[in-house]
Amino acid sequence: MKAYSTLKGVLDILQPEILLWNKIEEITRAVLQNFGYTELRIPIIESTELFIRGIGETSDIVSKEMYTFNDRAGRSISLRPEGTASLVRSYIEHGLNNTPQPWKYYYIGPMFRYERPQKGRFRQFYQIGAEFLGNAAPVADAEIISMIDTIFKALHLPDVTVEVNTTGCRLCRPLYRDALVGFFTSEASKTNMLCDDCKVRLVKNPLRVLDCKVPTCIELRKGAPLITEYVCDECREHDEAFKGFLNEIDIKYVENPEIVRGLDYYTKTAFEFTTEHLGAQKAVAAGGRYDNLVADFGGPKTPAVGFAIGVERLAELLRQRLDVYVCAPLIFFAVLGKEAQRMAFKLSTRYRQAGVYTEIGNALHTLKNQLKRADKMAARFVIIIGEEEINKNAVIFKDLVNHTQEEVPLEGVLGCIKGKQAAYNKQKINFS
Ligand SMILES: [Zn+2]
Ligand SMILES: [Zn+2]
């Protein structure tokens, strides 16, 4: 028979990794909550048009990487390649601008892009993203940076650098765009040496040339004009104030004028959190300001700033560092015979409803094998029920940590556990 496997670039997340993922989510959610964010569950599928409008037709994401298909009624649908467009759509659709401020939302979930899979890059990948709407002030950008920094500190993420830039606005960016085109077209040889993608970018969206990872393109853009030389006074003042706030909270940043982000909607601040530990995929979080997107989508004029964190990359960085615990059963029933199984099933239901993690052994297995399994699962207590115990209306109560064993009347079991429960049902696991 054919052996099925996951699609290329798509992963199953199993034990023990999934425990690390759960931990990352738990810690991140707690920090987001402290900054006033609430979760907004956005759908995985949207109309293709939403992403074309939001991300930009010429972007790599829309032109090459989206999973797009027609539904049964012939409508063009896409799997979401990112979260911001959906979140903004939702904000407008539900009139959230009429609800009390602050408008701070986050999302967690899979995104889909048809890219060449490599280390740290997948076709289905998970993001934790957040958007702060309705605040045009530079302090909002700094608050976002501070929040990501707080998340990374809470996770004990090692050696992360934040790189910042300004991408200008609709007034000043066209000037820079022209300067950039002028630079690359000043000599025909220069234009010709650009990679094929960049030749197209130069016409459709020249800023993207700064994103190109092809070595010859990196070489060619040496000496290219920098956006910082072209931004208008308003953008410059915003940028200075933003960086001032970062200084205020001792966040060390690196200015990188090549961060333009791959999406059309960014204005003013853009940033990336990078690490040297992941090879070519350096960014663990990225984002920026997008003051026009809400209005472009037909909503009220609403400035906004947001970001997304890549969960796979975080998990990779944290494999050895984050203490993660697997839950072990507090009680394991070893059962001999059908009647014992019936009784264990009844008791375990009662214990589980009382919040106790309980497992039942397989009555078809020997007692020895069931005890072995209890041991492997690191159960704290084993309750053995056999024919003799049923007749006596009692159980054998084994403490696997203190190595004691006693016969306990049925109604005494819960009392037995209560005294010894403590916070045992956790066991540290190793990720090697
Ligand atoms: Zn400007
Ligand atoms: Zn290129």
Question: Could you give a short description of this structure?
Answer:
With 432 residues, this protein is of the alpha+beta class.
Explain what this protein looks like in three dimensions.
The structure is a single chain. The chain is of the alpha+beta class and 432 residues long. The protein has 16 helices and 18 strands. The strands form four sheets. The chain has an eight-stranded mixed sheet. The protein has a five-stranded mixed sheet with strand order 14-13-15-16-17, sandwiched between helices. Strands 2-4-3 form a three-stranded antiparallel sheet. The chain is elongated, with a radius of gyration of 28 Å. The structure holds zinc ion (2 copies). The site of one zinc ion has 8 residues, from helix 10.
Tell me the overall shape. elongated
CATH class of the largest domain: Alpha Beta
Distance between the termini: 33 Å
Total number of strands: 18
Nearest-integer average pLDDT: 92
Largest sheet: 8 strands, mixed
CATH homolog superfamily of the largest domain: Bira Bifunctional Protein, Domain 2
How many domain units?
Answer: 3
**CATH architecture type of the largest domain:** 2-Layer Sandwich
Could you list the spans in which at least 5 consecutive residues all have pLDDT below 50?
none
Radius of gyration: 28 Å
The molecules bound to the chains, other than polymers, are: zinc ion
Keywords:
single chain, 432 residues, alpha+beta, BirA Bifunctional Protein, domain 2, Rossmann fold, eight-stranded mixed β-sheet, five-stranded mixed β-sheet, 16 helices, 18 strands, 22% strand, elongated, binds zinc ion
